[in-house]
Every structure is written in C-alpha cells, then in structure tokens.
Amino acid sequence: MGTVAVMGAGSWGTAFAMLCADAGEDVVLWARRDTVAAQVRAEHRNPDYLGDIELPDSLRATSDPEQALAGAEIVVLAVPSHALRDSLTDWSAALPRAATFVSLIKGIELDTRKRASQVIRELTGAPYSHVVVVSGPNLARECAQRMPGGTVVAGPETVIAARVQAACHNPYFRVYTNPDVVGVEIGGAVKNGIALAAGMADGMGFGDNSKAMLVTRGLAEMTRLGVALGGNPLTFSGLAGMGDLVATCMSHQSRNRHVGEQLGRGRSLDEIIAEMNMVAEGVRSSKAIVAIAEAHGVEMPLIEGVVQVVHGGRSPHQVLGSLMGRERKAEFHGLPSPD
Fold it and tell me: Has 191 been annotated as catalytic?
C-alpha cells in the first residue's frame, strides 16, 4: 500500500486523516500554514480547527505539497470548492498521475457549475474510475472524537471504491460503497443550502414542525435535482442524502446552519462570515445549484429562497411569506413515480 495524502488541514480534512490513520494507513496531512503542520507534528493536535482533540501519533504533517504528494496512492482533496481549481493547478507538477483522487468537497464551482469530481478530472486528467467522492453525515468534531458514525464512498469502479472504503473504515467508522457519484455529490452540495434555510428557521424562533417540513421538503428538492442529473433516487434516502441532511440541519456544529441562524436573527452575511475561520459551502454553492436547476427545469423553491436572502438582499421573513404562499401541489410533485 502507498501513502494517503490528505490535502487540506481544516476540521474535516484533519478528522478524515485521523480516520485513515486509525484504519492502519500511512497518512500525511498537508496544511496551508506551516504553524498548523508544526502543531500536528509536535503536539498531535490541530487547535485552530479541532481544539484539544488528540490526533494519532502516526499522523504526519507538512506544509510542503510536494512532500505530501510524493508516492501517494490515494490523494484526498479537502479544500473548499472555490479553492479547488487553483490548488490543483498549483500542485500540478507534483500530483501522482496513477493515484486515486478522493473528494471530500460538498460544493459546486460557481462559475462553471461543475461538481468537484468534474473539476478534479478536468485538472488532473484522471480517468472517471479513479475519482471518487466521500459524503455523509460527518460532523468533523464528532468523527475526531471517535464517536460511532458512517459515510459513503461513491465511485464507478468496484475495486477502486473498495480500496478507498478500506482506507477509512475502522472500528468506530463504517463506510459503505455506492456507484452513484452524481447522486452522492449532489446530496452533499444541496444539503448545505437546505441547512442555511433550517438555520434561518431557528433564528426566527420557529419550532420542530417548521424544521421537519424544511428537512423533508429539502429532501424532495435534492432528489428532484439529483434524479434530473442522472442520480439514483435511492441514494437520497441513504447516508449521503437524508443522513447528511438531518445532521447538517439539526446540529449546532453545522457551519451552514449557524450562518442561517444568524441571518434569521437579522445579522448581515458579511458580519457573520468575518467571525468564522471555516467555510460555509452553501453560501457560494446555492447560487450555482439554482442555476443548474433552472437549466434542467427543476423546481427548488427552498434553495431559491436561500439565494434571495444570501445574495438578493431579501429578509428571511419576506422569503418565508413567498414560500408559504406558493401554489398548492401534490406532495411528490416532480419526483419519480414508483413502477
């Protein structure tokens, strides 16, 4: 076996590196800042992102991308979606061409409307079989605390997906495979926008009935878009669909839910983002998701409402009135009918 190189030492990148180390892999974590890499090496902690949680002694860290990528069998990409293209361009000469590339990214590139796996294939020239996606209800701190959890590895090639599955499957973290790359990736991106809406509901003081409606109607929007793009409807009832949606909409650890909650309380987006040291992917990706939905004739009123608040200057209360006043519909309008 070769090295697993995890490129990105934010909360989820660091936690995923830990999962792989606990699965018995030889793991090196790349950090953009040398201070972060030095703390991981010397103290076995990443206090900027995971507080005082202790990391495995075997986990190596560096701020040199060439050193991190040298000899890597699996390259895990844990950078924000808006930084992916530039990062891959910067690392181009050092990327091992025979490696399997793993995306932890739950976002859509705004300008091109491409999913992360598409950007990876474009920039690396990797074949479709060698780019896989990991997505599920994976709040980084809980994973790093070794609480029981699980995720999905999506890839079209069974052997390659199984290799990535083995690389992060350990006694406290169950990993399932799924060939539906599109569905798994769309689930991870759309749930962030829905979490913004769920946070707004919390910020406006609404209750569990409201949150339950948002989550289930969000699942309907996610499924409609995913199926229109070629995803399997069953994917959205699994860990990468409903599982991730529930965790992100309900947890106070969720960055997207936090941003939505603060918006619901009347604060400005600039003020909220200025306080954060991590990226809320839904803020950028929701706009691209709406554009994709419009191009495919898919109704996504919740995500459209989020975009109106985040990018259009409308208040959550104004958008709420528009959503509740929409034309009456059948519950499963726009979804595949069972045979």
Answer: yes
